[in-house]
Amino acid sequence: MAILKVARLGHPVLRTKAKPVPVSEITSPGVQRLIDDMFETMREYSGIGLAAPQVHVSSRIFVAGLRPSQAIQEMSDDHEMPFITLINPEITLVPGAPDEGWEGCLSIPDMRGLVPRAAEIRVRAHDRTGKRIEISAKGLPARVIQHENDHLDGILFFDRMLTLATLTFMDEYQRFWAKHDEDEEEKSHA
Ligand SMILES: [Zn+2]
């Protein structure tokens, strides 16, 4: 496994719509190695999610999560988001009032902003074995999945902010905005 270089804001790959992965290629050594390397890279940089375009691969793949778990069909717990690999995901937003929450991004280091997201989503995708899966997610897992899915379409969290008034550097976030929730740190970057 290897730690991959993360593309930063300004690199065109982050603004490119990623290509679907042919289902027959999901179990190929190249794609499997990419997924392993993405998990290792996410862990190295203390991220909670990482999309392939963030490591310069314009394919519709992302990894996310905080903990190993077999039960991924229903994700609602903010502290136990299971590790998932989603390939060619299709997201449906469940109608309802959006949630506002802080987001950061490994491709936009040291910054954070308040982003509205659908509070609940359903996702259809392939997992890393090529199997079709369906997931229902709320809370933090729903937010992370929407953030990562946006990367596959060349969309960054700035683009989703209603106003840039809450855009802040990390130091200033800690000084002026943080609610002294230590867990916030661990799950900040996607
Ligand atoms: Zn991101």
How is this structure best summarized?
The protein is of the alpha+beta class and 190 residues long. The protein has helices spanning 29-44, 139-152, 157-160, 170-177, 182-186; strands spanning 49-51, 61-64, 74-75, 84-93, 99-105, 108-117, 120-126, 132-138, 168-169.
Structural overview:
By secondary structure, the chain is of the alpha+beta class. A six-stranded mixed β-sheet has the order 1-2-4-7-8-3, with helices on both faces. A three-stranded antiparallel β-sheet has the order 5-6-9. The chain contains five helices and nine strands. The site of zinc ion (ZN) has 6 residues, from helix 2.
Summed over residues and divided by their number, the pLDDT gives a mean of 92
Distance between the termini: 20 Å
User: Main beta sheet: strand number and arrangement?
Assistant: 6 strands, mixed
| Proportion in β-strands | 25-35%
Arrangement of strands in the largest sheet = 1-2-4-7-8-3
Structural class: alpha+beta
Query: What ligand molecules are bound, each kind once?
Result: zinc ion
Rg on CA atoms, Å = 16 Å
Counting H and I runs of at least 4 residues, what is the number of helices?
Answer: 5
**What would you call the shape?**
globular
**Helix-residue proportion:** 10-25%
The strand count comes to 9
What is the helix/strand order? HEEEEEEEEHHEHH
User: Poorly predicted ranges (pLDDT <50, ≥5 residues)?
Assistant: none
